[in-house]
């Protein structure tokens, strides 16, 4: 039961963040570790700021 | 390479679908055929859900398997180009939530409310059938095409499949559409806030609230979106509560009491400043708030409709289908199909379906749920907006949405005129409604948002009664729409700036430099001037603005949808699946016919911009002044504005015709070739990439 609740929570948080243009941080860190071990892993703060800027770079992500 | 074979349905599933079909047909029968007595909204809602479910299960599946031939064994862009940031294979429900949040906007809430002047039936039928056969097909097919092309954008696909010139033509069309969208949405805010100190105060309060949230997220708790949004929500609700005291105060109220022109200037000033501020300070925090508030409010509206189960007070069909309606001019065909754009079919979605969503889908097999299903959800929002408007007292509905030039500017005049139309209403009822929602007047509040707010406030009041709660809910709904629209204005100005720089770069390369301040400021100024012009024009318009600008917006939005569907048609033929050419082809044709007819009627004839311009210039020559103009200069401005609208309409029609010719050329060429010529990326098996 607890596990279900936790996965629902994780899903809700992930959806809510993605709706605001912030992808999953853990997934990104995992991706970096696996594929680009030479790169520095950004802190969540750095990651968040970069994504925040990127969201409004003019790719037209919303509707009327 | 073969698409998965459709499994044979089990007997139980056959019975289930037969039952859904029967229930849906029965509900739709009640909605469409019962006359003389008001029906309950639940019939309409149930009929819609049944049609959506059937459309999703059968037509959506048909498009998936036969037309797009989506293949779950094929590796999608998110897997092939996984970078952990933009391209990430993501859980399908997360992608669905993201996609819906990106496509759902103010559009589906406004169009159906305006279209309710013809009764609830025409709008309902267009939303239900439009979405199943046009809107959802467009979103789904563009998503499917983009999935096969490295998640490329609509513009990129147009250039690739049709050639560079059609690509540029479409890009200009998108830019102009965006300017009209921003102007018309900003006008909705202006209409809602005119002489409303309560509303203006709460909307103004969102700026310091956003600053506070931005600072909190920047320095104190970086990246805590949900936490900061909750704080913001509490502050917003407090500002609604405080707004009442501002409105009641003799000293504070005048500070927030503006007419339409002043509000238009404030919005233009706001747009110019906001779009050059750093995003973390104002845009991002407000974007988070409005995203969550939007989803929450849609859920609240659904809950209210299900619990309150309102009776539809508006007739199924009013006499205004003959084109004499006060809210927008023009006959049912083509103007109903122009007025309800978002909700039935929205060209704008093709930009999102070829934007972030295809970069996130983990499997082609999930595209139907996200693309087709997401659009069905949006249509459901449109149906709910229609229900909220149709459950209002029709007299109140027409008083709010008719221009002063038609119904008069006092409650007595308005009540008399509207009662003569057959919607009996007394001046006291109009005054009482205004008093209930805490405003001085409800007259001339066209634009959908205020009507929806009154409808929603009354529905919620039925469930949660309480002294003064109608006024609270009304201002909550206004705030929600205004918050959302201001975010769109801000973000849209930025996007418009990039597009202008891209187009300017074709002429003079250095202007393309998005990091240069000269290029930035210049493009921002051009962008704000473009939408600002139309906004101001709406604010001084004799028919209140929405009446004039909404058709222009509808034509532009349907034009983009037609372009997206034409692209899909060309690709279907290029893939040598000619027998399915009608799937995107017929809706494309329908939209071309609607936009061109509507455009023609706006250029020539009694409801055209030309006629309005002639009327005012004829009066000017005789030295007369026509309301609302108070001087010869204002008369001249109205004439000029109508000329500009004529030019815009002509431009849209020329764009449509040009794109039709480009597509026909590509179609004929692809038809004559005896092998597939579409630019799909090569097949890579999902199993070969993932574990």
Distance between the termini of chain B: 20 Å
Q: What is the radius of gyration of chain B?
A: 25 Å
Shape of chain A: flat
Please indicate the count of domains of chain B.
1
Sketch the major β-sheet of chain B: none
Residue runs with pLDDT of under 50 for 5 or more positions of chain A: none
**What is the helix fraction of residues of chain B, given as a range?**
over 70%
What's the assembly state of these chains?
A: heterodimer
Class from secondary-structure proportions of chain A: mainly alpha
Strand content of chain A: under 5%
Strand content of chain B: under 5%
Shape of chain B: globular
Helix content of chain A: 55-70%
Of all chain pairs, the largest interface belongs to: A-B, 38 and 57 residues
Distance between the termini of chain A: 40 Å
Number of strands of chain B: 0
The count of domains of chain A is 1
Q: Describe the biggest sheet of chain A?
A: none
Pfam families (chain A): Sel_put (PF04328)
InterPro entries (chain A): Sel_put
